[in-house]
Amino acid sequence: MYNKNFKLIIAAIIVGVAVWQFIEGYIGNGIMFILLSLIFILLYFKNEFILLAFLKLRKQDFEGANKWLDKIKNPEAALVTKQQGYYNYLKGIMVSQSNMNEAEKRFKKALSLGLSMDHDIAMAKLNLAGIAFSKRRKQEAQVLLKEAEKLDKRDMLKDQIKMMKDNMKRAQAPNQHYGQGGSMRSQKRRSR
């Protein structure tokens, strides 16, 4: 993967060619080259591999999304800061099923680098809450869950947040068994 500044250099060269075309009197060619340079400027701010990974993720193709993300060899050199945040966010989603420690690192790094949409921040915090809850850090999980609930203004994660709250309540409830309790031996004596 090439450096992110390479796209800006290509865009500057294309703008130079567009200016040359305008000077020569080829206005149509100049406009076409300006539009072409805008594509490279857009790809500077929105990385093509991350966009393709999002499209694969939308189709629930985790393996395909991971292939596109793997094409980014050096995220620090190839991506601007927000893109690095989304790179780590997507990588966190990919590894959350298999490696919770790695997923936790990825989500925390994504939040520290910054995500531009509140929904994405809420999703990252919801995932971190689930990881913290599974590691028996209930207070941290509750704080993250409240933050995710505040950020979810369109109620897109309403069901997942409700399910997480229900799971946390069940885990905090005391395990009291009424009726036939005790050991198996005492239950057999009662049945005789």
Automatic annotation (TrEMBL):
Tell me which InterPro entries the record gives. Answer: TPR-like_helical_dom_sf
Entry keyword set: Membrane, Transmembrane, Transmembrane helix
**Entry keyword annotation includes Membrane:** yes
Q: Where is this region: Disordered?
A: 167-192
Where are the membrane-spanning stretches? 7-27, 33-55
Q: What name goes with this protein?
A: DUF2892 domain-containing protein
